Each structure stands twice: as structure tokens, then as C-alpha cells.
Amino acid sequence: MLFTRKLFLITLLAIMSSIFQNQVYGQERKTKNTLKNLIGKEVSFDSIETFIEAKMKTLNVPGLSLAIINDGKVVYHLIKGYADIGKEKKVSKSTLFEGASLSKPLFAYFIMSFVEEGIIDLDKPLCTYLPYEAIAHDERYKKITARMVLTHTTGFPNWRSDYKENKLFISFEPGTAFQYSGEGYQYLAKVLAYILKTDDAGLEKVYQKRVAARLKLKYTKFIQDSYNMKNKAEGYKDGKVVGEDDDPKIFGSAFSIHSEALDFSKWLIALMNKEGLSKESYDELFKTQFTLPDGHPQKQLGVTDWTLGFAKVTLPFGFVYGHGGNNSGYSSIFIIEPETKWGYIMFTNANQSQLPMVFLQYLMTP
Hints:
The chain is α+β, with helices and mostly antiparallel strands. Helix content is 32%, strand content 20%.
């Protein structure tokens, strides 16, 4: 469930200097077999597949699904490798992957639909909706809001299970610092379920109605049905199957989304076209919510701000937004540049793989 922030940020920082000299995004595609990378360079489909094939071998990645968006449309889609090595089952258009922490920005988008209707207030303490027994021993939790959850400023750890005591705690005064936390997202999901008088299965039904059905996301689900489980790629670590890490019936706002590149790209394109939410909600969603202070390790690595669910990186031509994901046996990443409507999404069934970030760097090379 951990988001490999450091590698993601280093990748973005590494390409910044090249972008200064290559801001040529307006050029037209020369042939039907090329696409534009983020800095406008034409890249051939053949070179992409050659690069991917070589890196899959060196990085021990069994299978993947990727899509690249130019001008708000998917211009390249690749499925490659094995969904199940033992059964020699290849990745197909129906193969699904765990998206892990890609769940978080999608959940933030979902939450904003309730903010629009006044069902949830971004700045109202969550305890006024639903007290949280797991952290009741620390009065500071009563200051935690939905905005703090979505910007990782609650003070909660990523997961309490990462610590010997396995007990939820707060590291700092809520709202004053940044600390990546899946725990916060799970609390907000509990609050939403309570407000709606439903459970995890009910949350999935509401998500399907409010988001998936409207954007025609056929397979992108927080709770997995029989079809998704049947078509799911096996997750691998060091060449071995890792098995199921989480209950597929849990609505994991921080970790449980399953999808594949073409289906997930529909949401990315919706973000570019500002669909499904009001202009005011989009302004709030992508607005800087927390600016990292000078000297903060993440700022030194490239990220300048966090929005509601997205890491924001300031580059010479504007801003890019994205998120990465790592569950046991799976790694993924997406990046979007809303102004030019450029995007990239990759899912793999390899544990803590560097491939999504390595390929991102390749796409940004002049």
C-alpha cells in the first residue's frame, strides 16, 4: 500500500532541466506512428515498445498495461507480458491490476461531489460527523478535517500496522505539517459511510453511480466483483506470486482500486476536460492546499505542493499532477498536465517496481 514518493519525485526533478530547453509542445505529430511526450518531442511507437521490452526484462516485470494521452485522447495503448506466468496467461485487454494508492486522488474526486452538495464540509472536524474511537485518546484528533486528510496533514502515520504497537497516533498538530497517511483516508471513508448510512458495499454502489457510470469506467472499482477477480493479474515479487494481500470486499479509499490503462485513462481525460464536477470544485481540487516549507525533503526532490489528493510539481512550463501506487505485487503511476491535456498511466504486476518511473523519465527525455 505504500506510495514510493522518493523515486517518483527524483524522476520528476531529474527531467526539469531538460524541459527549459524543449518547450515545443505545440508542434504537430509527424506520422501516425508517433506521439508527443510531455515536452513535445515526437517519439515513435516502435522505440517505446523496444524500450519497454528491454526494461521489463532487466527490472523483472511480468506484465503491464499502459496508455499515453495527447490532446485529451489516448494515442497509444500497450499490453504486454504475463498476467500469470505459471499458467502462461498473457496480459489481455481485460486484464486488471491493483492500482494501490492511485485510489487516493480518485477518492478525493469522489469526495468533492459530496462537498458540492453540502453533504461534507472540507473544513468541518470529522469527529462532528463520526467520533473515532481508535484515536480518542488524543484530543488533537478533534481538529482533523477532510481537507487535512486529502492533503496528508492529519498527523496520522501511513499505517498503524507499520509499528510494533499497532496503535493509531498523531505525530504533530493537525494541519501544520505533511505526513503521508493512508489512515486518514480510511477515516474519511468511515465518515462518508456513516453520513450516507451505509457500509463498504454501499460506498461502492454510490461511487459507481456518481463516478464510474457517469465516466463509463467499466472496471475501475474499489470493491471487486467476480469479473474483476477472475481477470486480475497475479502479483509478483522476485518472480514469485505474492497472493491476495487485502480483502476484495473492503472499500479501501487509500489502496483498493483495481483497473487497467484504458479504463483508468477515461478518468484522467475527464480531469483534463473538467467533467463530473463544477468549475469551483475543480479549482479547489487542483489548488495548492499545502505548500511544503523550504528545506522539506520532498520539496528538494521536486514536489512543491499538495492539492486535494494529488502531488503537484512546479515546472518551467506549468504544473503536473500525479500519484504513484504500490501494493504487494503491484506498482503503478499516472501523471497529467491539464493545460496541454497530456497524460500517462501504467499498471504492472511487479512488486515495488521502478518501471513506471523509469518509463516516465524516458517519456520526458529530449
